[in-house]
Design goal:
Largest sheet: 9 strands, antiparallel
Order of helices and strands: HEEEEEEEEEEEEEEEE
Helix content: 10-25%
Number of strands: 16
Strand content: over 45%
Shape: elongated
Number of domains: 1
Length: 292
């Protein structure tokens, strides 16, 4: 009888140890269930912040490059994270249409591509939900930037956007440039001639010949060169009534969502005998990207 009592007393510390061990494991499980997802989300946030910071720095260097003049260049390193992808993309399309009042078909129409650099990263959490996007710089989906004067040549016109397409688990951080739209009226009173030039300035990023279209890994080195600025002027088109500039942009992430931003109106001269002509002038600041 005394031997059985001693056995029961001996088993009590074992049960206590197992109980405490179970409590500790449970506490660890609960802690991991709460803390680990937060750590994953924090890691994803840091990845996106790093991508946005890299493209923001690249943008600042590109704008300085344009100011430094033709044939200036620099090398830079883009951080993408462990499984990141850097790629050149030229899918965003903008159509510029100058429409006359009462006329359905545009009298002047021109299409431009808006090239961009993208850092594509896979995330472990739903930090940025599918179909969502956020902007580090720029004004939303606005593809154009209107000025009241043609004297300002360079300003912050970049857009750094992070988006997660509905059909993808990856998040893209992209750098693209809005177009700057301004206008200039030339009036020749003795000829009753009114000429309106609509100027569109843009940073035209192109891929260098022989350059890779993409680079995968934790980081990538790229060379950026300014090739100078070029102009393209369309023919003069006569308008018999008021005109409006409509700009429609298609964004592939949003399923080709159309966006018309701040139409520019042009009023015909009051004098019915006056001639009213409009043309487009495109100014391309040509930037060459070489993904090494």
């Amino acid at each position: 009888m005394s031997r059985l009592t001693r056995y029961k007393r001996a088993i009590s510390p074992v049960v206590t140890t197992l109980f405490l061990f179970g409590v500790i494991l449970g506490a660890i499980a609960v802690t991991l269930g709460i803390v680990y997802p937060q750590l994953q989300q924090l890691n994803d946030q840091m990845l996106l912040e790093s991508a946005g910071s890299s493209l923001n720095s690249l943008d600042a260097n590109i704008q300085s490059l344009i100011l430094n003049g033709e044939d200036s260049s620099f090398f830079t390193e883009i951080k993408m994270g462990t499984s990141g992808l850097l790629k050149y993309d030229n899918q965003i399309l903008s159509s510029l249409d100058m429409v006359e009042t009462g006329v359905i078909t545009p009298k002047i129409s021109y299409n431009i591509n808006i090239p961009r650099l993208m850092i594509v990263q896979g995330l472990d959490t739903n930090f940025l939900g599918k179909g969502e996007h956020q902007y580090f710089g720029g004004a939303g989906d606005q593809s154009t930037l209107y000025l009241n004067s043609t004297t300002r040549r360079l300003l912050t016109w970049s857009v750094i956007n992070q988006s997660r397409p509905i059909n993808s688990d990856d998040v893209s951080t992209s750098l693209q440039y809005r177009s700057i739209v301004s206008n200039q009226f030339d009036i020749i009173p003795n000829q009753l001639l009114y000429n309106l030039t609509v100027q569109i300035q843009m940073v035209n990023m192109t891929l260098a010949s022989g350059s890779a279209a993409s680079s995968s890994g934790a980081r990538a080195t790229i060379e950026v060169k300014f090739l100078g600025s070029s102009n393209l002027v369309t023919d003069w088109t006569k308008f018999n009534d008021n005109a409006a500039l409509k700009i429609t942009t298609q964004f592939p992430e949003a399923g080709s969502t159309n966006s018309i931003e701040r139409p520019l109106s042009a009023e015909k001269p009051v004098d019915p005998t006056a001639s009213f002509y409009i043309r487009f002038e495109f100014v391309y600041h040509n930037i060459e990207i070489n993904i090494l």
